[in-house]
UniProtKB/TrEMBL annotation:
The gene is araR. Gene3D superfamilies: 3.40.50.2300, Winged helix-like DNA-binding domain superfamily/Winged helix DNA-binding domain (1.10.10.10). Coiled coil: none annotated. This is Transcriptional regulator, GntR family. GO terms for molecular function: DNA-binding transcription factor activity; transcription cis-regulatory region binding. It comes from the Bacteria. Residues 2-70 form the HTH gntR-type domain. The lineage of its organism: Bacteria, Bacillati, Bacillota, Bacilli, Lactobacillales. Keywords: DNA-binding, Transcription, Transcription regulation. It comes from Weissella paramesenteroides ATCC 33313.
Length: 366
């Protein structure tokens, strides 16, 4: 539990890093800070003295405390051999394997991991970034939050750049930041999955994609791309779009899928944003009395560990997971050592399994 001293010091440091107090600004008086934080003047003096020692503040005798040009201070070049890792989730889906891959390389190089997650919200991302910056780390590996939307935390990414903290993005990137990144070729991967369904004889395909992250937006583009050379099929296919907030109640998404499956001209195949949603769709399709893949074929994305063990096993595109983690860690270590970084794009790796492997006998099914 933080002491009152820690609370004041961290609060003022966060206000400086976030830009609330710009370089050259005068801090509120001791009396104001005492009232704001409900602490003694002694505690305020200790906290500001600590920030002065860390070059965030400077004092003008008889006038007060001012914000120093802290961006010129190599705060990231710390003796702590710690790498910060920020992902949207930690304990489930593909993330444990990615983090394991990172740790394998990082620990071999003598570094420790400082791990945080955002739950795919900008507010938590901001808190994670501030906490890691103030801790003092050697580098960052970050999975962007809702990467298809404008990022309200761009100011912190600008600070990270100005502090020369080596940083690598995984799974996607923010267009407004020019850090190195590693991502799957989502467009071509999804296009290949849909072409596979078309080759199996499916003309009515329903795509379901999350559209507030770049992965989902690109997979939806891949869905479109597959139909650009199949104009006769495009007219009979449809798309459901959803956002991250909708995942808090997946029933809404599944109910929408169900409404299509119960329509007179129902889809004969589903292309889902990821394996997690595809697994739930398998349960839904079975509950409606349809056979998979004879009545409804299903494809996912990512090759989640459970995809092989489903009945039927799930056709998907393999996400590199551990390899992405290892590659990201090695690129970051190269950046820390002053070497140039590079971007990595993982090309399609389609795995055809039983959820889509049997061709339609006839296109006359209801």
């Amino acid at each position: 539990m933080d002491t009152k001293y820690d609370i004041v010091k961290k609060g003022l440091r966060n206000d400086i890093i976030s830009g609330k107090f710009a370089i050259g600004d005068k801090l509120p008086t001791e009396a104001n800070l005492t009232e704001q934080y409900n602490v003694s003047r002694y505690t305020v003096r200790r906290a500001t003295a600590g920030l002065e020692q860390e070059h965030y503040l400077y004092r003008i005798q008889g006038d007060g405390m001012y914000v120093n040009d802290w961006k010129k201070i190599p705060a990231a070049k710390t003796e702590n051999k710690v790498i910060g890792v920020i992902t949207t989730h930690l304990a489930d889906y593909i993330f444990p394997e990615i983090i394991s891959g990172i740790d394998q390389i990082i620990s071999d190089a003598g570094y420790a991991l400082f791990i945080s997650n955002t739950h795919n919200t900008f507010d938590r991302e901001r808190r994670s970034l501030l906490r890691i910056i103030e801790t003092g780390i050697s580098g960052l590996i970050i999975e962007p939050t809702m990467s298809a939307l404008p990022n309200p935390n761009q100011d912190l990414y600008d600070q990270i750049k100005q502090l020369h903290i080596p940083t690598v993005f995984i799974n996607s990137k923010y267009e407004s930041s020019d850090f190195n990144y590693l991502e799957v070729n989502d467009i071509d991967s999804e296009a290949q999955l849909v072409r596979h369904l078309i080759a199996q004889g499916h003309k009515r395909i329903l795509g379901v994609f999350k559209v507030d992250d770049i992965q989902g937006a690109h997979r939806m583009q891949g869905f479109y791309k597959a139909f650009q050379t199949q104009p006769d099929y495009a007219l009979d296919s449809n798309i459901i779009m959803y956002q991250s907030d909708d995942e808090e109640n997946n029933a809404l998404i599944l109910n929408k899928i169900e409404s299509y499956l119960e329509s007179p001209h129902r889809p004969t195949a589903l292309a889902l944003y990821n394996d997690s949603l595809a697994i739930q769709a398998i349960d839904l399709v079975k509950s409606l009395g349809f056979r998979i893949p004879e009545d409804v074929a299903i494809v996912g994305f990512d090759d989640y560990s459970l995809s092989t063990y489903m009945t039927p096993s799930l056709t998907t595109n393999r996400h590199p997971k551990r390899k992405m983690g290892r590659d990201a860690a090695q690129i970051l270590l190269d950046l820390i050592d002053g070497q140039p970084g590079h971007d990595v794009i993982y090309e399609p790796d389609i795995i055809v399994r039983n959820s889509s492997a049997t061709p339609l006998i006839s296109d006359d099914k209801d």
